[in-house]
Structure formats: C-alpha cells, structure tokens
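Record 1 of the preview.
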Amino acid sequence: MFERFTADARDVVKTAFEYVQGDGGGGQCVEPEHLLLALLDRDGSRGASALAALGLPPGERRESVREALREARRRAGLSRAESDALAGLGIDVAEIVARVEEVHGVGAMSGDRKDARWRSGRPSFGRGAKDVLERSLKVALAQRDRHIGDEHLLLSLTLRPGVPAEVLADHGVTYESLVRVLYGGGGEAKAG
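->
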C-alpha cells in the first residue's frame, strides 16, 4: 500500500514514528494520535492547507489540538464520549486518573513516563493506526484519487471514532468540512 503514498503521506508516517521514538508521543506503537500530531507538523501540503483553511494554521490553534491530545493521553486515551459513558455507570475517570497519578506520578496512565522500557527495538503500527491507513486508501478511492496523500490520512482520522476525530471536530475539522475544502461542495463520497 505504501507505494501508493505521496511523499507528503510518507513524511507523515515517518514523523509519526519519530513521535513514538521521541518525547512527543510515548508508547511502543504508532497510533492515530501520532498520525494527527505528524499532520499538524506539515506545512505546504494539501492536508496542511485544508487545516489552515478550517482555522488550524500553524501556531496557537494547533497547540490547543496538541494539548487536547495530551489530556486524552493522561486519561489513558479515553475520549470524552467514553469518559461520559463511564460516568453514567458511576465511574469518575478524572478521579481515577488523579489517584493513579498520586501514587505513580503524572502521566502514569499515558505511557509518557520516562522509565518506560521498549519490548522491542522498533515501534510498529497499532491497530488504530492500521485502521487509519486502510481507511485512507478507501477515502482516496472514494474520491477517485490515484494516490494516497496526507489529506486522505486526515480525512480518515475524522471518520474513525476516537480522540483524534473528537479533538479535530472540537476545532471545526470534520469529514464534511474537509471534503468541502479539498474537493468543493459536490460529490461527497464517504468511505467507511
């Protein structure tokens, strides 16, 4: 599949791996959050242009997306919808996070701790990132595009339920708004 990726899309994947290996993301696998962080770093690509057109130019607004992702990581990657569902069962996620961090330190549930050790020397794709990559192919095909660009990765992130889609929607970036910016108003094919 990677032979169909544009240089911009390949750079996103490469940067996502750098987030896993560095201080930016934590963990052993590339996850959808890492792909979103890598997309936020882009400049001059179709995906970056679409983000800027929707009010997420480089700078302050992108930092608010990064902060929202950090907060979700602190909650062990739970979205607000998942936290609300647990609250309906009488489980206070904020209280659990506070207690765990009280005993084990800030970031204990996020995988960001400095004493975390790798099980293997190389990170891989997590199930969520694999799903995003597979959906990006479907999105490209639905839009009748021959190659998978960073815009298809971005569109795919908005289709997949979870923290990245939630954070993007909070900032006005949805599948529908991206399609309008990238392809104009008509012919919105949605890839599931």
